[in-house]
Design brief:
14 strands; about 450 residues; 4 domains
Length: about 450
């Protein structure tokens, strides 16, 4: 069947129906969806607008308008369309899921979590049936923001893998559990997640299915837990990280003369992370930091300078799948606190060329010592899927910033400048699919 011709035939049929009626909001919405599938967002926008005008209570039209705004990256414009949809129907979970994403994109995390709470009050299990099902997986998730779980929507092909997303909550209540080939515990480590990981471990034991990332192992991926798991590996360098209460922080700072890094426990993406040199003003600066960055507990560690001879810092992200390391990205910056989103990779061709060399040949870039260290991380964490943020020290050792399963892997925004990312992201997706099939074959 020629799917392009079939879509064109459906468009023509819908246009005839619409022309024959005074109002046709349902048909206009379907027509808008077809236009979107063909990549014509302007034509889709026109149909959704007309559908909403013909029937202001037709929620699908409002969601269509919101979806187009999201595709255009205009989250401020998307928000009112989805708010209108839930004003019409408070039980509209798809609109609330969209608002959960929108509010986080707009840095309104408390509002996003309020929408998630409304969703989970109504439903905790969400099934997405694959039209060409080859496997099925039960994914265990925790309530929270984007960083609370592995971003599975990028990782899994929903056309061939049926997904049952189960959110665990503090009350321990569970809906009927659907049949699945295997389990993937996608919950990331945090203080809030610990009781949910214990709950997940009990469920995994009860179901007896193969499991990617046993929950009891994720518990040990905190910044101090990783230090305990990996600290004896000679090919790794890890800053001796300590966890201390708010009351203990100043005392700990006074006990150390080197430059220190301090961050709140459970923070990621550099939120609340600051560097404090050993000078006469450090104690006063830490007091001011504690007022500015309030937390019950903090991580404190010596700063290990990883700047290269050319004056730039480099942070590599590698995803280990079934014990093998796969490169995902390299961020280069003249700033010590690097994240891919704020590194000037777009501005410098030489940076992108270096990243491409890393992606094409990880051993040549990082060296055999570092590659073996990455495999050691996979073995010692005993996780089938784990991300590693790291750098290379002059002596060839791997400086590990974080080893955590809940690292984002995607190829969104891989436009012409960053199009080289796509095959390497897809290699990680394919490795994860092979992992699922290997475990499924054992069951």
């Amino acid at each position: 069947m020629n799917r392009t011709n079939d879509a064109d035939d459906r468009i023509l049929a819908l246009q005839r129906i619409i022309a024959s009626r005074e109002q046709a909001p349902r048909e206009r919405t379907v027509l808008g969806i077809l236009y979107l599938q063909k990549g014509d967002s302007d034509a889709a926008h026109e149909q959704f607008l007309k559908a909403a005008a013909e029937d202001p209570l037709w929620t699908d039209a409002h969601e269509g308008l919101g979806s187009i705004a999201i595709k255009r990256g205009d989250f401020d414009a998307a928000r009112p369309h989805f708010l209108r949809a839930i004003a019409i129907n408070p039980d509209n979970l798809s609109a609330r899921f969209a608002l959960y994403d929108i509010e986080q994109a707009l840095h309104n995390t408390p509002v996003a979590l309020a929408h998630q709470m409304e969703i989970l009050a109504r439903q905790r299990l969400f099934t997405i049936r694959a039209p060409n099902e080859q496997r099925s997986v039960l994914i265990l998730l925790a309530p929270g923001d984007w960083k609370a779980n592995v971003p599975v929507d990028f990782l899994i092909d929903f056309s061939t893998t049926t997904v049952h997303k189960l959110y665990l909550t503090d009350d321990g209540a569970l809906p009927p559990i659907p049949k699945a080939d295997l389990i993937f515990c996608a919950i990331g480590e945090s203080d809030a997640a610990i009781p949910l990981l214990h709950q997940a471990e009990a469920l995994v034991a009860q179901l007896g299915l193969p499991c990617i990332n046993r929950p009891q192992r994720i518990v040990h991926t905190s910044r101090t837990g990783i230090l305990e798991s990996l600290g004896t590996c000679s090919d790794l360098a890890l800053a001796p990280t300590r966890r201390c209460s708010r009351e203990e922080l100043l005392e700990d700072v006074r006990a150390h003369q080197e430059t220190l890094l301090i961050r709140p426990v459970d923070s990621h993406a550099g939120l609340g992370l600051e560097r404090f040199p050993a000078d006469d003003e450090r104690e006063e600066n830490v007091r001011a930091y504690m007022e500015r960055v309030c937390a019950d507990y903090y991580y404190i560690a010596p700063f290990i300078d990883y700047k290269n001879d050319d004056g730039y810092y480099r942070k590599y992200r590698i995803i280990c799948v079934d014990g093998e390391p796969y490169p995902f990205h390299l961020a280069i910056s003249d700033k010590w606190m690097i994240h891919y989103y704020n590194a000037p990779m777009r501005d410098h061709l030489w940076m992108r060329e270096e990243e491409q060399r890393f992606l094409a040949d990880l051993p040549a870039t990082m060296g055999t010592t570092a590659c073996e260290a990455l495999r050691a991380i996979a073995r010692r964490t005993n996780l089938e899927y784990v991300g590693v943020d790291c750098s290379i020290l002059p002596d060839g050792r791997l400086l590990v910033f974080e080893a955590d399963p809940a690292m984002i892997v995607h190829h969104l925004g891989a436009d012409g400048v960053f199009g080289y990312h796509v095959p390497y992201a897809r290699a990680i997706y394919a490795a994860f699919e092979r992992l699922m099939d290997r475990l499924r074959a054992r069951s």
